[in-house]
Amino acid sequence: MKNLYKIVDVKNLLFVFDIENTFDLERERLIVEKNINDPRQLTELFDALLKPEFYEYTDAEQESLIDTVDHFLKEDDDFDRVFNRMTTYFDDEVTDRPSFMRTLLGCLKKYRSEKNSGY
User: Fold this and answer.
1) Using an 8 Å Cβ cutoff, are 48 and 26 in contact?
2) How far apart are CA 66 and CA 63, in angstroms?
């Protein structure tokens, strides 16, 4: 059976960074302070805001998200369907979207591994 990958799942995961999300000055400040084009700072941002969100997903949903991001990276997707439909708190434009997504994928895999090992 072939998996059906939906880019909207990635967009939904990144909703935590969207202006349409609940108004939260602390979250907004944290997002704006980070250089989202620097993988280290982006990882710090993901760890602070995305990790708790990711842990709310079921195991199957977490695996599906990891597989979905991986699939679109392997397809050389430009991720326009994610970023062009979001208005974020990011202070800068994401200059290298595949790099952003590779950082995201690495973080999701790390979170999944931590969860499985009990951290």
Assistant:
1) no
2) 5
- CA dist 101 and 24 (Å) reads 24
pLDDT tens digits, 69-81: 999 999 999 999 9
For residue 109, give both structure tokens: 């895999």
Name the nearest CA neighbour of 83 among 14, 6, 9. 14
The whole-angstrom distance between residue 38's C-alpha and the CA centroid of its chain comes to 14
pLDDT of res. 75: 95
Strands (E), the chain: none
Tallying the residues shown for the chain, one arrives at 119
pLDDT in tens, 3-25: 789 999 999 999 989 888 767 88
Contact yes or no for 69/5 (Cβ under 8 A): no
Contact 34, 88 (CB under 8 A): no
Are 83 and 9 in contact, with CB atoms under 8 Å apart?
no
* pTM score, whole prediction: 0.91
